[in-house]
Amino acid sequence: MSTFDITPRKVESVEILDLTGELDAHTAPVLEESITRLIDEQKYNIIVNFTSLDYISSAGLGVFMAYIEELRDLGGDIKLTNMKESVFNVFDLLGFPALYDILEEEQEAVRKFLNSNPQD
Amino acid sequence: MPLSDASNDSLRSRFELKTLLDTSRLLIESHDTEFILNNLLLIIMGKLFTPKSAIILRDEQSRKWQLVRAKGRTGLQEGCLFPAESAAPASDKPYFTLEELPDDFRACFQTSGLELFFPIRTSSEHLGYLCTALKIGNAPYSRPELEFVENLVIISAVALSNSMLVNRLKATNRELDQKVQELNTLFEVSREFNTLVDRSQMLSVFRFTLMGQMMARRFFFLMRLEGQPQLILQQGLKGSITKAEKEQLLAMKSEFIRTEELDEIPAYLRENKIEALVRVKFQDERAVLGIGPKASAQPYSKSDINLLISLGNLAFLSIQKTFLLEERIEKERMEEELTIARTIQNTLFPSPLPKPKPFDVAAINVPSRQVGGDYYDVLCADDRLLYMAIADVTGKGIPASLLMANLQAMIHVLSPLKLDLAETTGKVNDIIFANTPSDKFISFFWGRADVQTLQFEYCNAGHNPPVYWSAARQETGLLTEGGMLLGALNTIIPYQAGRVQLQAGDVVVMFTDGISEAMNEQDEEFGEERIAEIVAEHHQKTAQELKQLILEEVRTFCKGNYGDDVTMLIFKINPPEQH
């Protein structure tokens, strides 16, 4: 059975989700729940930090597809950071870099959010 | 002092050699095709003072020649393909003039101004050409200039061949990675589908996988449920689709079709920009997966389509499985309930059978299904009164057994009160009539015997008349006195009671229509006559022996194909015991 965990944090006005373990069809609903909760709380600037994520399957990627449009319509975004090479490879193979802001470092993503929303 | 011509030549050739070496190192060390092509042209143009140059390579896939790089005004578009089949004259000359090339190839370059074509060759392959125009001012190239280009082309051929190989390897690797990724996805989905039994969780896995794997935001899954085409999964879709359109989709002929190829595009598909339709089939059942564009705006590749077909098949079979599983669970639950009902019903039959002297009693009940509607009872109201009853409720299964339980309760409450038998039958009829639907009846026979006086009083409410063997008269008769079936009408005409003075050797056989109406292969019924004959012939046997005998005869008669519940209640009066 795969293990997966999410720890939410906040850096300035940006919500950060630290993922640990394996994100697959089995655990995707857990991430979905976290993201929908942030949207319900009107927190639209989200960074997902992949530092401790070991594996992702296409169903895991599906969660990001499900909410990116809505978040951008609401003026927010999901930025993805600190991926291991094997994890990035899956995003790359499925063509995600064309649509998503995938960054090396979390700080960079935070800076981008703060620069685009100076009022926060 | 001026340098001699000879030393000048040697200096120049040394300089050229150095350029050649530097260039070759630069080119060979780079595995970047673009870089190699670009540099090659720049060096040539700088060296030869030519205003135009180009590189033509053989395109692996189309097997045609392609202009991959051009500098200067050639009038040719980079990337354009030349229709020419063969471009290589059978010669190992280091270069060809335009005139020396095959006609169809030459035609492509007639107005380009490119005049010299240096074949780029490795030992095994002809990769393409490096083409140049003449020098500015149309002066001819010198021998050393041509030799320089020849040498450069030989070196570049190796570099180019290597870089193209590296590119091909990279592309192949990526294709392999993609295949592995697809297999992972299929593996994961099938694993999840196998372990899940909950349909909504299954659809959620399917939904995430389609979104992640295909980068698709809009899709639907259509399948037939209980005869009706239904969208069991919809993602990001607006509007509605008519039943006729759903049927049209389910009837699609090919395994895959692009929406634009449909003769008539339903508005639902057009408005939601559904791009492709995949049909899956298992036996006669079909399902259709419709999917919108990829968010990356890429078209669906052959590989994507194959994967969609596999995913669609997996989802289809797994979802069908959940319905079958639900049916089975429901069936098992009902069977379990029937078993419980049967257990309860069994406790309603008397056990052990009361056998007050001189009465010898035997009984049997074999329901044709798990629970039946037949009933018999034997109970002692006190030391003297013995009640015996047999009944057949219309129908079978739970409804019949409920009604039977109801009747049993009434008899057990009423018997100890020793009321008038006919009048009590009327009361029971009124209650049954009030409590049951109009299509439910009970045929019922009961009797009350005084074990001392051997007076037997009975009332037959529409039941098969029991066979009575009179030892005194040495003949059989039928116990018919009574009235109509219970539960058909209110008691308007009172029931009548019949009375018989029993004596030693008398036999009464009560039975239900499972015995009398058992059929043989000629569709003949066993009938009361046969029962009466058996009783007349074997009246001296015990109640138990008689019961067995009749059962045997019936079984032989119908070859074990009982159509109904089989119930029998027999009593016999034993002679007074000798002390």
Structure description:
The complex is a heterodimer of chains A (120) and B (579). Chain A has 120 residues and is an alpha/beta fold. Chain A has one domain (4-111): Transcription Regulator spoIIAA, CATH 3.30.750. Chain A has 4 helices and 5 strands. Chain A starts with a strand and ends with a helix. The model of chain A has no long low-confidence stretch (mean pLDDT 92). With 579 residues, chain B is of the alpha+beta class. In chain B, the strands form 4 sheets. In chain B, strands 3-2-1-6-5-4 form a 6-stranded antiparallel β-sheet, with helices on one face. Chain A binds chain B through residues 24-26, 28-29, 32, 57-66, 69, 89-90, 93-96, 98-99, and chain B through 174, 177-178, 181, 184-185, 188-189, 192, 204-205, 207-213, 215-217, 294-296, 298.
* CATH class categorisation of the largest domain in chain B: Alpha Beta
Number of domains of chain B: 3
CA(first)-CA(last) distance of chain B: 169 Å
Q: What best-fitting shape of chain B do the alpha-carbon axes yield? A: rod-shaped
The shape of chain A, in one word, is globular
At the third CATH level, what is the topology name of the largest domain in chain B? Phosphatase 2c, domain 1
Report the CATH architecture of chain A: 2-Layer Sandwich
Number of strands of chain B: 22
Please state roughly what percent of the residues of chain A sit in beta strands, choosing from under 5%, 5-15%, 15-25%, 25-35%, 35-45% or over 45%: 25-35%
- Count, helices of chain A: 4
Order of helices and strands of chain A: EEHEHEHEH
